[in-house]
């Protein structure tokens, strides 16, 4: 075996290549990851037309663009990884991998790499497309946009592993992912920006897992989020990420559920 293959990066890369092949055989998962995030922004666009965005200091573009990236994170990363981890566990792939050189973190990271790359690439394509078609332009605070995207990727990956821990089969993954997907789509500022919600409702929604991500992404493009105002979303997002990682270490299943 070559030296490159015995390094953590080499082992994870090899695992990621194998995962790409396996993922390509799952047409349902592949369709949801590649095409659903491209279709949902049209629904947000139509819904946003009926909102009083100007009063909230928003535009059609600053609503649709962050939502588009959020959809990519939810479907290309989160939902895909729930199916991937569940399928590999039930196929005994994870169990076999643990008997080799790979460490647990390398197995999880390597298996997640194709979904993460897909989600990031898709997010960038959607961001450019929305910026051009909806006349949003470049982000006014790019550091917030980058931070929001990175935070979203790590958070969705950890949530995917946690959800897979309680998912019995690939088929049931369509059900177990619904709470996170629908709560995020409706109450995290994707379909309905927090700025147009009643204050009490918005203050509760701020603590949902993906709300900090959407807030940072939107603030990155509008430039209206000050350093002080960004602290809250960053802390909330990091807290959810830490909780997700701890939950994975505590509950992630490496062998089939019985």
Automatic annotation (TrEMBL):
UniProt keywords, alphabetically: Cell membrane, Membrane, Transmembrane, Transmembrane helix, Transport
Cellular component GO terms, alphabetical: plasma membrane
Residue span(s) of domain ABC transmembrane type-2: 28-251
One GO MF term attached to the UniProt entry: ABC-type transporter activity
Chief subcellular location: membrane
Subcellular location: Cell membrane; Membrane
Family matches, as Pfam families: ABC2_membrane
TM region(s), chain numbering: 63-86, 107-134, 140-163, 175-194, 230-248
InterPro entries to which the protein is assigned, alphabetical: ABC-2_transporter (IPR052902), ABC2_TM (IPR013525), ABC2_TM_bact-type (IPR047817)
Bilayer disposition of the protein: Multi-pass membrane protein
Record family assignment: Belongs to the ABC-2 integral membrane protein family.
Highest taxon listed in the record's lineage: Bacteria
Organism encoding this protein: Streptomyces sp. NBC_00180
Protein name: Transport permease protein
Coiled-coil portions: none
């Amino acid at each position: 075996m070559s030296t490159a293959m015995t390094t953590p990066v080499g082992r994870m890369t090899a695992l990621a290549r194998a995962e790409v092949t396996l993922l390509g055989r799952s047409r349902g998962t592949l369709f949801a990851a590649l095409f659903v995030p491209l279709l949902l922004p049209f629904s947000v666009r139509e819904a946003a037309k009926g909102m009083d965005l100007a009063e909230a200091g928003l535009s059609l573009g600053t609503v649709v663009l962050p939502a588009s990236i959020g959809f990519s994170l939810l479907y290309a990363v989160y939902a895909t990884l729930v199916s991937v981890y569940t399928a590999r566990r039930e196929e005994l792939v994870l169990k076999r991998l643990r008997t080799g050189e790979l460490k647990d973190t390398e197995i999880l990271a390597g298996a997640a790499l194709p979904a993460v790359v897909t989600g990031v690439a898709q997010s960038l394509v959607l961001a450019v497309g929305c910026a051009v078609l909806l006349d949003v332009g470049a982000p006014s605070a790019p550091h917030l946009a980058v931070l929001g995207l990175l935070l979203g990727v790590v958070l969705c990956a950890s949530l995917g592993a946690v959800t897979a821990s309680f998912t019995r089969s690939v088929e049931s993954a369509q059900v177990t992912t619904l709470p996170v997907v629908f709560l995020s789509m409706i109450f995290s500022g994707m379909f309905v920006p927090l700025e147009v919600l009643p204050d009490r409702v918005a203050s509760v929604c701020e603590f949902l897992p993906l709300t900090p991500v959407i807030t940072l992404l939107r603030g990155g493009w509008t430039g209206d989020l000050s350093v002080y105002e960004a602290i809250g979303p960053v802390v909330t997002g990091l807290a959810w990420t830490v909780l997700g990682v701890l939950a994975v270490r505590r509950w992630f299943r490496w062998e089939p559920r019985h």
